[in-house]
Amino acid sequence: MVHNKIHISKIEKLHYLRSCLKDEAATVTQSLETTEDKYAIAWDLLIERFWELEEIPETKFMSSSEAEVEQHFLDNVYRNETGRYVVRLPFNDKRDKLGITYNIARRQFFALERRFAKHPEIKLPYVNSMKEYIDLRHMSKVRNPDTRDNYMPHHAVVKLDSTTTQYRPVFNASVTPEDEEDEYGQIGDQNKSERVTFNQTLMTGPTIQNDIFEILIRFRIHQFALIADIEKMYRQVLVHEDDRKYQQIFWREDPNEPLEVYQLNTLTFGTSCAPFLAIRTLHKLADDEKHNYPTAADVVKRDFYVDDLLTGSDTLENAGRLRDELNSLLKSGGFNLRKWASNDNRLIEPLSNDLANVHLFSDPEKAVKTLGIKWNSQLDELSYSLKAELSAQEKTTKRTILSNIAQLFDPIGLLGPIIVKAKLIMQALWKAKVDWDETLPLNIHTAWLDYKKQLPLLSNISFERCIVIPESVNRQLHGFCDASEVAYGACIYIRSTDKHGKCLTRLICSKSKVAPLNSKITIPRLELCAAVLLAKLYKTVSRVLPINFDNVYFWSDSTITLNWINTQPHILKTFVANRVSQIRTITNESQWYHVPTRDNPADAVSRGQSVSEFIDNFTWRNGSDWLNHPQDNWPIVPIQKLPLLEVRKITVLKTTLIDNSLLSRFSSITRLIRFIAHCLRFAMNCSAKPKRLGHLSENEIQEAKIRVIKFIQNQAFAKEIHDLIKIQKVDNKSPLKTLNPFFDHNGILRVGGRIVNSHLAYDSKHPILLPKKSHVTDLIIKHEHEISLHAGVQNTQYQ
Q1: Which of 254, 301, 564, 679 has the most CB atoms within 10 Å of its CB?
Q2: CA-based angle 746:751:756, to the nearest 5?
Q3: pLDDT band for position 454 (50/70/90)?
């Protein structure tokens, strides 16, 4: 890697890769020893990050160790007299094993000075950065340094896309201690295998910031948008004085000056706990000031990604009030918001006294880069570009291909069909089992060159940021899914209508997956997987967006998939049943409709498209054309009933566990159920280890109830059950016909009907069917009559 004719070593590239990583991947690389053999690990994490962006965000729960870090924060954080927060570093039980790094930090500083001598263009911005640290009291001189304290090496890292400092200091908290002599010439008594790095003594803490996906799709629904960032966020949080001895460095401006020791007084980027402590402090500020700034406090906890703010409002007045609240709230904790930008100049004008921190609305050449996506605030459009120009001369290898693909940062899937093409190339690389720098097979080499030459066309692609029509009176969500032999995907649109009947349909987001390698999974099963992906994507979108949709529609061009979704899962084979259950848990089967393949925008994300093909794909951006017309013109047709595939084979066995003579011996339903539960436990204990002992559990009682009910239903409704399993309906002559019977997830026959969408409890909407002439039914009625204190027929019937 070369920049400005300066060769950058793999060690420095490791620090560059760290700057590209986020969340858990960043935490892992921060704890890696900074050596060349660890560079490959960081590289793998960068590629892993590409795949993680294609996953749908899910709610995360704290582990016990993460909860410990959270409690440590709460027990030790406080505000000083200026309102700024002071935190303690969350050490684990390895602090006593922290090795001595005095000499290695000293040697690496001398190496930094030699680099300054060779490249003066690096020294000036670096010296200015360190002066700023001293002037802002972010670091202070140590009068009596102790060689046994922790010392962190530091070096210059280039950040080409920075609008402030391209060369900045980075502190290495993962340097490996060596066999070092202390000031008395003695070597420490720790074995090398026992010594740990500074980062290894720190607890990392949970990931608490919102996902980029969530922040970006929420950013797209505001009529008036605002973005900003927090100036030097980490350095606004003070570290307790007792912990600063672990953050010591060597520094001097000139080699002719004495070498001095400084301690860093604030959170330090590069320490593994810093991301959690910085974000958690911001959330603590929001909690502490919520009574003064309620709206801004919610936004701070919802619309920040680390130090980047993306927010907005539906009215100019509310957006202006939010901007002022945010400024006041953040300043009360010592944080300064800068680099404001908006799609409306009136929101920027009050901040115009500090033009250096404001991207002016009137400058069309300045597209603001936020969370990896460019936003032209004047046109109010989102666009994409590669982080670096693609070299036409470089050798095409697995490494160079993946480095270029990793630049395709598309968190919300607006470029879904293009990204799928990249995924398929990546999958082909893995399938070919080529090494990182090995010559590629001709077919992969050709496919990559064809794909790569079109990537510069990405700069011609843009999307409207705001996807909701102003003053909308009706908002619908439409999701589409599709699959092919190579991939499957889902995309979601918002269709909004104003009071004049004007309609706007725009893509919110998409997700895709390549078909599994070495698998003979069928197309219908892949179509079902696409439907699951759509259901999960809808679950996240509906949770994240503050919109109550008037209607929700899901569209698939697979009649087989739609038939499966409308079938009780328990009669389907395991693979299909599990996925149908997921879909039916998140969505209602009545929300699923058939769409002709030609009108399905998800077709593009299931096959992939080149950049040139994508540019002309208006259906992808705007949804099917008929969505912009009245609903009467939509292609809604009844789902064609097909003979079911993947139906579970059911073997009917005559059981001796329960028979009528046995049931008739009991005069209490409670005693009967407990007897059956004990029989089931006995049967289980004959083959299971460990044995179940003690009192019957609630689950065992429930299982016995299910067995008894299914037994009497099988006796009384044998033909209806057979017909429902075979042809999904009962005979027209059956007395149960008018009750629309169906099987629940336990295989129990229940009453169907048209009140499925009512707010009644499930058992009230779908009561269990019981035969009239059954001893068990009599026992149930007797039981309910007794517990209602003989209140009468009507009350017993209600029970």
Answers
A1: 564
A2: 95
A3: very high
CA-derived radius of gyration, the chain: 32
Contacts of 525 by beta carbon, 8 Å cutoff, 6+ apart: 575, 576
Q: What is the pLDDT of residues 240-271, one digit of tens each?
A: 999 999 999 999 999 999 999 999 999 999 99
Q: What's the start-to-end Cα distance of the chain, in Å? A: 76
User: Which H or E run contains 48?
Assistant: helix 39-52
List all residues 6 or more positions away from 740 whose beta carbon is below 8 Å from its beta carbon: 751, 752, 753
pTM: 0.75
Cα separation of 77 and 285, whole Å? 11
What local confidence, expressed as pLDDT, does residue 769 receive?
Answer: 85
Point out which residues pair with 513 in neighbouring strands: 488
Handedness of CA 236, 237, 241, 242 (dihedral sign): negative
572 exposure class (CB count in 10 Å sphere: 0-12, 13-18, 19+)? buried
Distances (CA, A) of 37 to 1, 14, 32, 99, 240: 16, 10, 10, 21, 35
Task: Name the nearest CA neighbour of 62 among 208, 271, 278.
Answer: 208
Q: How confident is the model at residue 792 (pLDDT cuts 50, 70, 90)?
A: low
3-state secondary structure of 673: helix
Tokens found for residue 518: 């070495």
529, exposed or middle or buried, with CB in 10 Å at 0-12, 13-18, 19+? buried
- Please give the C-alpha separations between residue 29 and each of 17, 207, 305, in angstroms, as whole numbers: 9, 15, 20
Tokens of 630: 């009245």
**In whole angstroms, what is the distance from residue 410 CA to residue 416 CA?**
8
Burial classification of residue 178, based on how many CB atoms lie within 10 Å of its CB (0-12 exposed, 13-18 middle, 19 or more buried): middle
Task: Give the count of beta carbons closer than 10 Å to the beta carbon of residue 395.
Answer: 10
The beta strand positions in 616-759, using DSSP E, are: 742-743, 749-750
The token duo for 417 is: 């069909």
